[in-house]
Amino acid sequence: MYQPAITGHGVFTPRQTITNDELVVAFNAYAERWNDAHAEAIAKGEAEAMGMSSAAFILSASGIENRYVMDKSGVLDPDRMYPSLRPRSDDEPGIMAEMALDAAGKALAMAGRDGAEIDLVICAASNHERAYPAIAIEIQKLLGAGGFGFDMNVACSSATFGIQAAADMVRSGSVRRALVVNPEICSGHLEWRDRDCHFIFGDVATAVVIERADEAQGARFDIHGTRCATEFSNNIRNNNGFLRRTRDQMEDRRDMQFMQNGRKVFKEVLPMVSAHILGHLADEGWTADQLRRLWLHQANKTMNDFIGKKVLGREPAPEEQPNILQDYANTSSAGSIIAFSKHSGDLAPGDRGVICSFGAGYSVGSVLVARA
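RE: above sequence
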């Protein structure tokens, strides 16, 4: 058996951003047009007027101030309200592979490795560009990697589930070096015309290199334990499988894009995640007071504050539970990895932390790591 370790990590951040103020202008313009078009039905009580959004409402509801996207113009067009992503020929790299390559390059550089040294690629994301061939195999080809690759989808927990799969294979010796990538184009599946969720998501890609600790080229985080759990729920759901679709196909199917029952999610997910982390710590012989950092799924600041307090038994200090929501918004599976990548360099040898993601399924995954 081999000790698996994270030896490199990287984040691809799109060039385009949408602030809350910009988003509100576009949404309110759409809402006003919808209300005008349905004025008669609204007056008769047959339809409910669409409420306006505001930057203050968004910040209060989520803690989000900004989001990065692959296409800004389509999202902010009141006549469209979803990204305009250029169709690609079969001879071109897909958009997810292109995003993943950037993050992977940064992770490989940190690990002191090149693509040819990778023998497993896992593309773990909440939405995939196509059904097949696997995005991971395309990334494998573009990197010049050997071995094999496969796609994984466990919604917002995809990254931690992918890390567990890779760590298990490194530990057993079936692979020597793995790359887990999380390209998330959440803007393609968000209903930007729904006031309750139009602000939630952004786009990004993350990557981590996992290899045998004794072969690490530099600083590393040893993986001391991984744990995953799922429990079926309809409270977070998306019935549309892939990014390539037309608006006309979904006009009468609101469930074909991201949907959630926020109150039930809060009530049911928070205790599940807190108990999961505490149980994982106990089974590994770790205690909460030994944790230097919590890198939590970046879905909602209130949720993370609740979980942090339950796990630590007190209010976490900002540096103990870093938040990237205000800049990136919810980036699904990539969120906890962004937090880890941007807020782990200051840890000293022996410092311990937990990477945890959670979401639709319900699903929750935790990874216990220590700086070595």
